[in-house]
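Sat 14:20. Reprocessing the chain from the morning session after the first attempt stalled halfway. Input below, unchanged.
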Amino acid sequence: MRAVDPRLLRHAGAARGYLAVVVLLGLTVTALVLAQAGLLARALASAAPGTGPVALRPVLAALLVVVLARAAAAYGGEVAALRASAAVKSQLRRRLAAQVLRLGPAWLGGQRAGEITTLATRGLDGLDPYFARYLPQLALACLVPLAVVVRVALADWISALIIALTLPLIPVFTVLVGLPARARAQRQWLLLARLGGHFLDVVEGLTTLKVFGRARAQAEVIGRVTDEHRTATMSVLRVAFLSALVLELTAALATALVAVEVGLRLLGGRIGYETALVVLLLTPEAFLPLRALALHFHASMEGMAAAGRVCDLLEIPPPRAAAGSGATAGADLRQQDITLDAVCLAYPGRDRPALDGVSLTIAPGERILVTGPSGAGKSSLLALLLRFTEPSGGRIEAGGVPLSSIATPAWRRQVAWVPQRPVLMPGTVAANIALGEAGASRDAIASAAGLAGADGFIRALPDGYDTQLGERGLRLSAGQRQRIAIARAFLRDAPLLLLDEPVAHLDPVTAARILDAVERLMAGRTVILVSHGMRWRGGADRTLTLDGGRVVLAAGCLPHVTGVTG
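Finished this time. Tokens:
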């Protein structure tokens, strides 16, 4: 772990102005400290027996002004430092969210969602000590001791020489004590991320765990990981406390050395009383920035470890689909074919490809049913058409134009998708239906809901279309959530419709209602329906059977069958 991570500084553009203000105010505080020491020494030296308060009034008044100015500058520096930290955290969170969106679902599926969540919340909150304390103190630790040594040298060169010789001991001991803390801080962060991910998995699967009687076992696992994190945290704290002890002892011995030599020379009359006071008052100030720097470094280790992981994620190159988002070629899926030519798709870490040499031509208005066992490559085919990923081999074209040459947003505007388990976002029912058409009118939203068979139950909700759904829309049934997803597709009015098991896991009555809505939705569109056994009333023009990533069967029209089979 570096003392200053240059990657983090590159992502901290929003804080540079604040940090400059913090350093400037810190130097102002330093100048005021020098002035305060001089005024206090003069006041004490002038306070001889028989000296009236009138004679000390100018010095005391100036001292009061300096103290108030120092307090104001310190307060301003604190405010600017906290604002710098808040700006950096906000900027990194926005960039992390944008990067996750660019990398897409295919990448996110191979990650631990809990770790990403912990990074964006607790992890980045740990940057407060780094930006609000450590970075400003780093600049001050270089400038303040130099200023103090120069000021002491003007008063007494012997004391300045002792200070200059003992100052390097602070950073040397900081490095020696801090090296063991680096690995401990990184392990502490990894355990925290693991704990967050595991806890999220347990919460999401709590129903299954309760049914199978494994809730207590998972609670014991969480307890074990928590104990490991506690142990790692205490290990980091022990190193931090040891560092503080060593630094305080070093600074105290150096200050005592200066005090002893100044006291001996004062007794011998070789140094003035006011000069001795100035030296004694300023000596601790020379060591204070370096001691504070070491303490802030230990306090910011967790945040630096988390931020390093965030920087690693931000440096991941986006997939080719996202990288080609600046392409200008276009396609009209209402009139042009989609062609897959020997398309292969391989995921990292898997021993065989998800798709292997798939060739397919999709004509406008055609209905294609894709079947096959689990793991056959059906969802991977949809992922390619949704441009969540790019083929590892072969090519995909639309109207003779390579898909990679078509801007991803322009392509997706022509695609509607109804997944097996639709995701509802926190917000109103209307906002969820208009997820793909943010500017849609209320009448258009209600019309789409009516076509999807959702208008009735939506109006029965407490606030109708303005009802807040909450997290994942859990207040709605599975069938109601599915109908809202179909309403989204109606509102999108896209020429290419992708359906991924739209009635899986639904009871026959609800499935029949969903099928009615799906049949209306498919009218006049190019449709690709993925299913293990569902067939729709209007029939399919073709059925493709996938197995092991290959097309093993391609048949013509299917008979008109209603409902779900198999």
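The longest strand covers residues 338-345.
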